[in-house]
Design goal:
Distance between the termini: 29 Å
Bound molecules: 5'-O-[(S)-butoxy(hydroxy)phosphoryl]adenosine
CATH architecture of the largest domain: 3-Layer(aba) Sandwich
Helix content: 25-40%
Structural class: alpha/beta
CATH class of the largest domain: Alpha Beta
Strand content: 15-25%
Number of strands: 32
């Protein structure tokens, strides 16, 4: 597969930071970056030892910096800290005490600012509330909330008491909640009566109630009153957030936990139907997100930082909550859709709150491009000084538009490559030090050793495509998959012995810049959301009409990938528009509305090899309306392809 990876991106266009940006940046030259990078990889333990001491607050020093044994890392062994104390308490008694930690804006326009002092009080009260419900260190707590300040309070309170949170994105359905809650046997669910999205209420509590019909581990539910719609509260199980905190003390002492204490599980899609519970722990994860926030976003005391990601995804964990607050930064958070009430909502937020650093996804950038520059010109964006991109490769056209129209030509863009599994940013261009190339993520961050391998596990020559691997352990790496260490090893550590394989295809250019060409496994990137084709397939075959299905991605102008499903029906079912609509709704109910197929194509049969494997490569070409390329001689029945090509919508 790897030899099929091609990239037509332009390699030589360079955008260096302005002198003005450079002069104030934490790292100001390529030479300085190179010196620090080289130190970090020549003697990683020395480097991380210094950084961990400088950047975090420890209650007890570690005995060993890294313990590495066959794909299992332990960082800062014997060290003790409290992650929440690092993100909040340690800023009290400093000039940050009354600085805004969160500037929150709800979709209907309601606003709330929490200073570090106020955030601390909310967290202490909520931590006491959690403990009053019997939540203790190691217990799993599911959080299914809108993007409101209380969601951040919920996460940090779990961290404070040593409970392991698993945040479930509000776009997931009750079925998805059930799977995740059961996989980690969560004891408590924290949710809201609803959340606002495009002027409508998302019925979060309704979904939770539905899910909990099949979740025996859940003992209690805390519900935040957000939209004030009527919801069913079950006696003995359900508690209102406001009732619990009203009677809770605002004093809460944070205990110190071992560096390797699990901090959270975050489910992400892989190449089977079952999502993977990526497990992150405390000290290493916090260090990784803290150091990258500091250097990649060049975070300064006076910055107002806005990352548009939802806390339901890793970006929201690492670069809204942990990394930014640990640095004492000011976060803007926004609950709703980018085009509510109008397509200029984001720019109105940037203008009104004087955002200086803006971090978003290429799919959003492409949507803004399409909506037109007029919406942007209505607002003053001169406060911006740095832009970021994350989630998928950004096409050079969108990059340049972002640079010119949003950044006014003056803001560096950091394209950041990383994954749920890596915890923090791995490849980027440090903004004051390194020039960017539109379309390339850039160079490795400190301590990161990426290489491009061929199928035989040899490093390929510069300019040649292959599979991206990371050869050295890093502090914020995932520790395992929750409850499934076997899958952890198989997924990440068995493609090549002793080397982390991330699932992406990549090429390194002559300047050492990494160009990610996207996933080479069966994972799709749809509007910045990671989805396994197998998940969509298993949702489809769970419908009584479906015999078999195969899902592939098709390039899509805004979403990155569109979801195309080939479906073979059971005898007696008619493949008409009505059934298409039913199947789309079914996938929406099984996974979540964002996973609904863009196109469903009924097929009498799917193209298979003689050994019965579906030939997705052919389906991808058919979905994209392309000529079939490559070998088709292994096909069991060539007629199937002809029929599929003819059978367009
Ligand atoms: C996959 C990880 C990283 C947080 C959000 C997504 C793709 C991510 C980039 C980038 C090219 C990127 C990769 C990666 N990806 N960032 N800057 N350039 N591709 O996290 O859901 O775990 O997805 O997103 O394919 O493997 P995720």
């Amino acid at each position: 597969m790897a030899n099929k990876i091609t990239s037509i991106a332009q390699e030589d266009e360079k955008f260096p930071p302005s002198q003005e940006f450079r002069k104030q940046a934490a790292i100001q030259s390529l030479a300085e970056y190179k010196r620090l990078y080289s130190e970090s990889v020549k003697n990683p333990e020395k480097f991380w030892n210094t950084q961990a001491k400088d950047l975090l607050l420890w209650r007890k020093p570690w005995k060993q910096i890294l313990k590495w044994k066959e794909s299992h890392a332990k960082w800062f062994v014997g060290g003790k800290l409290n992650v929440c104390e690092n993100c909040v308490d340690r800023h009290l008694g400093t000039p940050r005490e009354n600085k805004a930690a969160l500037i929150y804006e709800g979709e209907p326009g309601d606003q709330k600012t929490l200073t570090y002092r106020q955030l601390h009080t909310e967290i202490c009260k909520f931590s006491n509330a959690l403990e009053s419900l019997g939540i203790r260190k190691g217990d799993r707590v599911a959080i299914y909330m809108p993007m409101v300040a209380e969601a951040v309070v919920a996460m940090l309170s779990c961290a404070r008491i040593g409970a392991v949170h698993t945040v479930i994105f509000g776009g997931f359905s009750s079925e998805s909640i059930k799977d995740r809650v059961n996989d980690c046997a969560a004891k408590l669910v924290i949710t809201a009566d609803g959340g606002w999205r495009r002027g409508k209420i998302i019925d979060l509590k309704v979904n939770v109630n539905q899910a909990l019909k099949g979740c025996p581990s859940v003992e209690s539910v805390i519900t935040l009153k957000r939209t004030a719609n009527r919801v069913h509260m079950k006696k003995g199980r359900d508690f209102w957030w406001h009732d619990l905190v009203e009677s809770a003390s605002h004093v809460h002492k944070a205990k110190a936990f071992d560096s390797e204490t699990p901090l959270f599980v975050l489910y992400t899609s892989g190449s089977t139907g079952k999502p993977k519970g990526v497990l992150h722990t405390s000290g290493g994860y916090l260090l990784g997100t803290t150091i990258t926030s500091k250097y990649v976003f060049d975070l300064r005391e006076s910055d107002t930082y806005w990352c548009t990601a939802d806390i339901g995804w890793i970006t929201g964990h690492s670069y809204v909550v942990y990394g930014i607050l640990s640095n004492g930064g000011t976060n803007v958070i926004y609950e709703g859709a980018p085009n509510q009430p109008g397509p200029d909502r984001f720019w109105s937020i940037v203008d009104r709150h004087k955002v200086t650093i803006f971090y978003t996804a290429p799919t959003a950038i492409r949507a803004f491009m399409k909506w037109g520059d007029d919406h942007i010109k209505k607002h003053d964006l001169s406060s911006l000084r740095l832009l970021g991109s994350v989630g998928e490769p950004i096409n050079p056209e969108a990059w340049k538009w972002y640079h010119k129209v949003i950044g006014g030509g003056r803001c560096p863009i950091v394209d950041t490559w990383w994954q749920t599994e890596t915890g923090g940013i791995m490849i980027t261009t440090l903004p004051g030090a390194v020039y960017s190339k539109p379309g390339s993520a850039g160079l490795p961050f400190f301590g990161v050793v990426p290489k491009v391998f061929n199928d035989a596990g040899k490093e390929v020559r510069k300019g040649t495509s292959g599979k991206l691997v990371l050869t050295e352990p890093w502090p914020s790496m995932l520790r395992t998959l929750y409850g499934d260490n076997k899958r952890y090893k198989e997924t990440y550590w068995s493609e090549y012995e002793g080397v982390y394989f991330c699932g992406d295809g990549c090429r390194q250019d002559k300047d050492g810049y990494f160009w990610i060409v996207g996933r080479i496994d069966d994972v799709l990137n749809v509007s910045g959301h990671r989805l396994g084709t197998a998940e969509i397939e298993s949702a489809l075959v769970s419908h009584h009409s479906v015999a078999e299905s195969a899902t592939v991605g098709r390039p899509h102008e805004i979403k990155g990938s569109a979801i195309v499903c080939f479906v073979t029906l059971k005898d007696g079912f008619k493949g008409d528009d009505k059934l298409k609509a039913l199947l789309r709704a079914h996938v929406g109910a099984e996974i979540g509305p964002f996973a609904k197929p863009d196109e469903i194509r009924f097929a009498k049969a799917l193209p298979k090899t003689r050994s019965g494997k579906i030939m997705r490569r052919l389906l991808k070409d058919i979905a994209a309306g392309k000529e079939i390329h490559g070998d088709t001689t292994t096909l069991e029945d060539v007629g199937v392809v002809k029929q599929l090509q003819a059978n367009k919508d």
